[in-house]
Amino acid sequence: MPSPVPFILADDPLNVMDQPRESRSYTSASSPRRAMPMTSTSRPVRRSLPFLLAGLSMIGPFSIDAVFPAFPLIGERFGVDSTGLQQMISMYLITYAVMSLFHGAISDAIGRKPVIVAGMLVYALASAGAALSTSYVMLLSCRALQGACAGAGLVVGRAIVRDSLEGPAAQQMMSRVMLIFSIAPVIAPIIGAQLLFLNGWHGIFWVLMGFTLMLSLALMLFLDETHPVAARTPFRAGTLMRGYVSFGKDRPFWPLLISCSVNFAGLFLYISSAPHIIRDLLHLSAQGFPWLFLPTVAGLMAGAWMSGRLAHRRSATYTVNLGYGFMLLACAAHLLIGLITREPLLPWSMLPLILHGIGVQLAFPTLTLLLLDRFPQRRGGASSVQAFGSLLMCAVVAGVLSPLLSGHMVYLALGASALTVAGWFAWRWYLRLTSKPRVPHSSTAEVEVELQTEITEPR
Predict the structure, then answer these.
(1) Which has the closest alpha carbon to 59: 219, 286, 196?
(2) Does the bond joining 347 to the residue before it have cis omega, within 30 degrees of 0?
(3) How many Cα atoms are found within 13 Å in the side-chain-facing hemisphere of 38?
(4) How does DSSP classify residue 44?
(5) For the chain, how are helix, strand and coil distributed in percent, rounded to 5?
(6) Cβ–Cβ contacts within 10 Å for residue 204, how many?
(7) Domain 45-227+252-434 -> CATH class
(8) Which residues of 406-417 are buried (b: 16+ CB within 10 A; e: fewer)?
């Protein structure tokens, strides 16, 4: 998919001046420009790429949401209470987060395609093991193996986007992927609920196995390698640690990492609490999950569409600010409805999830691209750290916050609000770190010297 040649304006946070020295390119050290052209990849991007990346991204939501309707059957089969069942989510997310630290670095060393294909094949094997589990310990072990492999698609997939495209074109591709991906959370619990009538909870894992096997075949046939041999870095423990240390030394990297990590956590608090919300608060059966997931996915799809439309029209700052505006509005609406109604009411108690989904999808693609562009030579490693932070936060949300707060909609609204506000403050912190200092009134020569220093020296 060829892309136009976008321009990055000097007052846009995607400006090259906001990036580390290693990522900058200048036309001349003595002639600053207000706009710098960024070219897309020289190779054409296959039309199948967004669909392959969307399929990889769907593994995560399917692994989490599809098993929700099966919680009662799994609990009855292995004699596990609701708190123990929640560990199926936490175990998956913890191993997902830990291995995400390595997927990107391995792909920087041996290429993107081998890591993704191998990850999906092992995931299929883990799904078969889960379907054949004879004990809860065996089931949790297979869930842990699923998590260890599923991150390969998400982490390396983001690096592929940034390998292939730049600027607004990359944001549009990320938005297209997220638009396709957004249908996964709503169809996953619906499919899971229907599979209960066919083969109980075992059928869910058999379907996951079949899906990843077909996806692996498609990846082998249609995915191009985007990380050439000349650009690869050896995978060594010392090199890996030095790379992570270099991330930590980059001050703007930290607020971006925090903002990315908690960006989805507020919405995920409701998603991970879905079994409690649907069964305990709304008193619905397994067929009631669409009441929560349909508005969530509607918001995610609308936000992904809006992000793609804004890519060439508005700055990164505007898009992320708008996203956080929607998220904060959703939190306020949840709090207000929760305080007014003693019990959650349909559809009103679920409608703010639309606003929250829009906000997440507006902010997330741009935040991710800003973070990856801090280290263009180590995008796989940077994506690994970002995924680790996000997934570790989601594991805490699913394993700690959800059991504590899912007893009442007001508690959930307060938790989601705290996470969203933390992300907003981190974003504002990033803007302060990367904003250009105002030039005081001075002579023309002094102004030229200051501008030249700004162009040639890192922040």
Answers:
(1) 219
(2) yes
(3) 22
(4) P
(5) 75, 0, 25
(6) 30
(7) mainly alpha
(8) beebbbbbbbbb
Q: Give the integer Cα–Cα distance in Å for 419 and 422.
A: 5
Report the distance separating Cα 236 and Cα 241, nearest Å: 9
How would you write the pLDDT of the chain (459 residues) with one tens digit per residue? 333 333 233 333 344 334 443 444 333 333 333 333 333 344 566 777 878 887 887 887 788 878 888 888 999 999 988 778 878 888 888 888 788 778 877 888 888 889 999 999 999 999 999 999 999 999 999 999 998 998 788 778 877 877 777 767 776 777 667 666 666 766 777 777 777 777 788 888 998 999 999 999 999 998 888 777 877 777 777 777 777 787 878 888 899 889 988 888 888 899 888 888 888 888 887 678 788 888 988 898 888 788 878 877 888 889 999 999 999 999 999 999 989 987 888 888 899 999 999 999 898 888 888 887 787 767 767 777 877 888 778 878 887 888 889 888 999 999 999 999 999 999 999 999 888 665 554 444 444 444 343 333 433
The domains of the chain are located at: 45-227+252-434
Closest CA to 167 of 373, 421, 306, 415: 373
Q: What angle do CA 325, 329, 335 make, to 5 degrees?
A: 150
CA angle 390, 45, 212 (to 5 degrees): 50
Beta-bridged to residue 36, according to DSSP, are: 8
Query: Angle 41-43-48 (CA atoms, 0-180°, nearest 5)?
Result: 100
Residues 6+ apart with CB under 8 A from 14: 8, 167, 315, 316, 366, 369, 370, 373
Find, among 56, 50, 257, 47, the residue nearest to 156 by Cα: 56
- The label of the residue with tokens 């199926």 reads 88
Contacts 24+ apart (CB under 8 A), 31-34: 32/451, 32/452, 32/454, 32/455, 34/9, 34/10
Q: CA-CA distance, 168 to 316, in Å (whole number)?
A: 9
Asked whether 395 and 388 are in contact (CB, 8 A), the reply is no
> In this structure, what token pair is assigned to residue 345?
């009411």
Comparing C-alpha atoms, which of 333, 362, 378 is closest to residue 423? 362
